[in-house]
Amino acid sequence: MTGVIRAAEDFRARGASITILVAEDSIDGRACDALGRLDWVRAAGALAERETPLRVASIPQNPLTYFESSPGFATMLPAATGGTEPGLLMPIAVVETLGLTLGDPIQTADGPTTLGGTYEYPDDGRTTGMGYAAIAPIAPDSKFDECWIDAFPVSQATIELLYTAIAADSNLPDTGPQLSQHNLQLGKPVNPESAFAGRSTGAFPLAGFGIGAMIGFGAVWLRRLEIASAFHVGVQRSDQTVTLLLEALAWSCAGALVAFPAIALLTQNLAASDLIPVAATAALTPALTVSGAILGTLAAALLVRERRLFSYFKGR
After folding, report:
1. How far apart are CA 140 and CA 93, in angstroms?
2. DSSP state of 287
3. What residue segments make up the domains of the chain, in order of their start?
4. Under the phi-then-psi rule, with left for phi > 0, alpha for psi from -120 to 50, and beta for the rest, what region is 281?
5. Which is nearest to 212 in space by CA: 243, 255, 262?
6. At residue 201, does pLDDT exceed 90?
7. What is the DSSP string of 142-179?
């Protein structure tokens, strides 16, 4: 279960949950930014690449790929400061190379500007081009080439929402708008709820209940001669049944007492929102195993009859 959750977290952390709608000079920046205000959307913003790269005075021989973005794009990329100052957004690696801090002036061929924010762009399968770049946030009422949205799980409803970012007065190319995934290395998006429900260990609670019931029943049934003999010499059925149930509780709980600390250890690094449901689901297997053992013991105890003592003796 923790593997399914961590896979979903890794999917988001590596940008695979970001869907991009590409429609050259046809994206309404204001409409694209508005998608970021939806409850299940982490971030949304519009982007367009300038034809001319940005030349920085300190590294004129290595111009940066130059993008313009809507204000909403400032929190799209990992470890983004969100544009705390007016000015350019630049990768942390480039900022460290230039020795800059937030708010520092930057001299470019287009004129002076400042460092407004930073972001990370790890080499983890994402589309290339933004690891050595500069992004200039501009007014959202401009037209852009791409609308990015980070929503997980990725659904058809998310895709349909993206199309609302296309400007009403746009002239779309004959091929129409194109959809792409920001990071394809982790494969296509999957529904984490379906992956969780389809996990190979999903049947363990019912299997534990069945196995516990069989062991509990068998442990008593193998002693049917002993139990019937006790009835024959005057032991009350209620007393004998309680004794058998206490014995079953002792041996079955021994396994549960080992399982519960193991569950706590394996789930300790989960987020608070995941910890309780995952631990409770995992604890269901030992809990049902104990329940099955108790019910199996009770069923076998009720089936043993004193009048069949001779038959038990012959069957031994």
Report:
1. 27
2. H
3. 2-195, 204-315
4. alpha
5. 255
6. no
7. SEEEEEEEEESS--HHHHHHHGGGB-TT----TT--EE
